[in-house]
Amino acid sequence: MNIGWYPGHMAKAKRLLKEQLSRVDVVIEVCDARLPLSSRNPDLLPLLGHKNRFLVMNKADLANPAATAGWSRWFLSQGETVTEAVGTRPLRQLRRMVEDAAGDRMARDAARGVRRTIRGMVVGVPNVGKSTIINSLAGARSLRTEDRPGVTRANQWVRISEYLEIMDSPGLLWPRLEDQTAARRLAYIAAIRDQVLDTYNLALTLAEELLLLAPDLFAQRYRIEDTTLRGQALMEALCRGRGFLIKGGVPDLDRGATVLLDEFRAGRIGRITLEMPLETGAPDAR
Ligand SMILES: Nc1nc2c(ncn2[C@@H]2O[C@H](COP(=O)(O)OP(=O)(O)OP(=O)(O)O)[C@@H](O)[C@H]2O)c(=O)[nH]1
Ligand SMILES: [Mg+2]
């Protein structure tokens, strides 16, 4: 299975993002706490240059808390400013971080006796919760959010308060996802459009990964007794465990695949992080 998805709107979005960059004081890069490194777009950093920026590991409610703490330490050791967040909950800490990151500008303005609007920009791969975060900061549901990639199609400014404006941007992937492990994991968290994927094979590799990453949670949820199973035998056991059977007691593999992906994405199997700092071969992993 070779995963690649770089629709035309993303190339255009990247151009438009570049154009807006000179107008912003702070860049808020959002990634998914379940996949903190592979859900960062390597194409973005060179664009951002010396902008004030910080990283938000969003959807922390779906990730393993100890793993998120480990990632925080690792990013800090790399000289990054980082915070975890749950975009659907109040984000006071994030608001403070925007103001801190724009502190120099604010101090310069204050010295001149003026107070100008701070402009922030939210960037990241599709479906990590960029629009949700802006809605929470604004205390309004002005931006459309949905649990699929490619919802936001154009840059849009949202006023957060009298002196703060934040721009939402479309989720951006990079043109060549050379690393297929990362690409698969991006697909597990629904950053890549399902229609370009082979759902069954994707679910199968997810099942095998979960069996290694969180064997107890996975085996419990799908009533798998033999945790040495792999491949189709594993998917069949999952179907039997949950009673997904068609006529004659044959496992309904399509249903099993869809349910597994849906349940993982919604965090129903448990709080599972897909990658840890050590496996990235830090510090030159990107
Ligand atoms: N569990 C959980 N769900 C979240 C969180 N933040 C956002 N979501 C959900 O994730 C889905 C995607 O959110 P969006 O805000 O549309 O994501 P986006 O990054 O703007 O996506 P694109 O515009 O498609 O790039 C929605 O269903 C949100 O409700 C979070 O912290 N935890
Ligand atoms: Mg969006």
Structural features, described:
It is a single chain. The chain has 286 residues and is α/β, with parallel strands linked by helices. The protein has two domains: 8-176, Rossmann fold (3-Layer(aba) Sandwich); 198-275, Conserved Hypothetical Protein Ylqf, Chain: A, domain 2 (Orthogonal Bundle). The protein has helices at residues 8-21, 44-48, 65-77, 92-101, 103-111, 130-138, 180-188, 199-213, 215-222, 231-242, 253-265; strands at 26-32, 52-58, 82-84, 118-124, 156-161, 164-168, 245-246, 250-251. Strands 3-2-1-4-6-5 form a six-stranded mixed sheet. A two-stranded antiparallel ribbon has the order 7-8. Strand 1, helix 2 and strand 2 (52-58) form a beta-alpha-beta unit. Helix 8 packs across helix 9 and helix 10 packs across helix 11. The chain starts with 7 loop residues before the first helix and ends in a 21-residue tail after the last helix. Mean pLDDT is 92; it is low at 282-286. Bound molecules: guanosine-5'-triphosphate and magnesium ion (MG). Magnesium ion binds at residues 130-131, 151-152, 168.
